[in-house]
Design brief:
Number of helices of chain A: 16
Oligomer: homodimer
Shape of chain A: globular
CATH superfamily of the largest domain in chain A: Farnesyl Diphosphate Synthase
Radius of gyration of chain A: 21 Å
Number of strands of chain A: 2
């Protein structure tokens, strides 16, 4: 099995050969821009790993790996318009840099390019199964974004709905990347599904961890200021669980901070974090996160290939959780 | 061969069985709204006709016909956002009725639904060829929209670039609908390509006719006020040809009207139409349009099925040109 860095390099060399330098440049420049902003290239690497589990000869999975990366970036470009986000990976978002229309239309063409790259298969008989997997997850990603936007204006959100939202918005793409890789690599339906479930559960665990780190993480270690979710009143697992467990007085305090528009950010972060600590929500979140991770590893266990071949996926999942990648 | 009305009905019954009533409703309501706004259903009917040319048993082309209609409506929804259009078929556009974010995200999900319906084939081995045809045209439609937006701010546009733009934005979808129908119906590569060329040329002829009618059409007959393109300084074939042929004084007059912001609309329409008449651009446009139509019929002629089976396509093209459908 190839190592993560090796797969990242392999993917980046392929990406380099596939730059979109055709006219009209107003349409394709934003595509190149967002694809070259960097990132961990996690999804394409997972797709390649999925293929590499079943075959040494997995270079023919590179177009599908690029497809998944293009799709991920399509969703970032359109989400950034919808969320009015000014920055992405520390650089101006596409709609800020090139204008909103360019953001919409370049995103559209990226979604079509996704299908063009998914279709580049050395074994075209795999296409129906790959499209079935991909179409479903792509629709789910849109549904996840819709639920996420809905939650912003909803007064209360069930934790089960929140978990479903992060599954749709984040996990199914990670899961689908692994499954599509498995299909291309020649893995059977059962193994492909086990890998999908592994990815789905890791994805949810990862997002829960994200919620925890945003409030309780070490800024030095994670290079990110804490408290952003609290400042923005983001309905994370921590806030939803706290609302569920809070007594009348704690609920009042939480609502006070949520409803006040201008005030000291650090005061708000401290007050809300204090309640989270009283209610032990960090530990509850960690326990849930660990349950998802254990379920993930059970599914990985069930994939019918030699244990040693699967170790890299286990390692990658652990690195992801530790934010070491 | 089935008649147009019969195919429209067949398509509408299928559409009815396929309404998108699932949650989240914020995502799917706009999809149902735009699909139920009506229209001629020209593209799905053409797809069904393409299939029916080669087989009596063409019901299995219905999902692909719906795919093409969903794609067409996806492009309307996103184009309407980019063009800031308030109305579509006399009703509020999706982004006006449901908000811009709903317009973006529902459009995205429609593009994915397009692929989902394209994949519903009774013969999955046709999928690679169908996707190859569709992916190319879908990218071209985006490119056409980009060129169309570019032209708005470009000071001068070549007629050849204009013709290429209307080909991309309008014709390739009509052409591709016919070709995909032919593939599903079991037509060979050569016949499918002849049909594509038939549709491509009819599409360009149709758009040129649109330019002519917008200035010279009979408002009573076409139910549409004339002069809209002139008022908006739209770079149609008529204006571009007039700019090409105009002498200094005519050029000055045209530029005067183009550059004046407020003034009498009817005066502007009269003055520009007068120059069009002096320069005979209506006739030049008509001649060009007829050349495309003749080329279209040559390609239809070359399709290797009985003449009587092709008559309905010829008739439909003529009805389209006469705006009788």
């Amino acid at each position: 099995m190839r190592q993560v860095e090796e797969l990242q390099k392999m993917f980046l060399s392929y990406l380099e050969t596939e730059s979109f330098d055709q006219p009209p440049q107003e349409l394709y420049q934003p595509v190149n821009y967002i694809l070259q902003l960097g990132g961990k290239r996690l999804r394409p690497v997972l797709l390649l790993m999925g293929a590499n589990l079943f075959t040494q000869n997995f270079k023919n999975a590179l177009p599908a790996a690029l497809a998944i990366e293009i799709f991920h970036n399509f969703s970032l470009v359109h989400d950034d318009i919808m969320d009015k986000a000014p920055l992405r990976r520390g650089q101006p978002t596409v709609h800020i840099r090139y204008g909103q229309n360019a953001g919409i239309l370049s995103g559209d063409v990226m979604l079509i390019l996704t299908y063009q790259y998914l279709s580049k298969l050395s074994n075209p008989s795999q296409l129906p199964q790959i499209l079935e997997t991909f179409n479903r997850l792509a629709i789910e990603v849109c549904e996840g974004q819709q639920y996420d936007m809905n939650f912003e204006t909803q007064s209360s959100v069930e934790i089960s709905d929140y978990l479903r939202m992060i599954e749709l918005k984040t996990s199914v793409l990670i899961a689908g990347a692994l499954k599509i890789g498995a299909i291309i690599g020649g893995g059977g339906e059962k193994d492909a599904t086990e890998l999908y479930e592994f990815g789905r559960n890791v994805g949810i665990a990862f997002q829960l961890q994200d919620d925890i780190l945003d409030t309780f993480g070490d800024p030095e270690k994670f290079g990110k200021k804490t408290g952003g979710d609290i400042v923005q009143n983001k309905k994370t697992f921590l806030l939803l669980k706290a609302m569920e467990l809070a007594n009348e007085s704690e609920k009042k305090t939480l609502n006070h901070w949520i409803n006040q528009d201008n005030g000291s950010e650090s005061e708000k972060i401290n007050a809300v974090t204090q309640i989270y600590k009283q209610l032990n929500v960090q530990q509850l979140a960690t326990e849930l996160m660990e349950r998802y991770l254990l379920t993930a590893f059970d599914h990985l266990e069930a994939v019918g290939v030699e244990k040693s071949r699967k170790n890299i996926l286990k390692k990658l999942a652990n690195q992801l959780m530790m934010r070491e990648i």
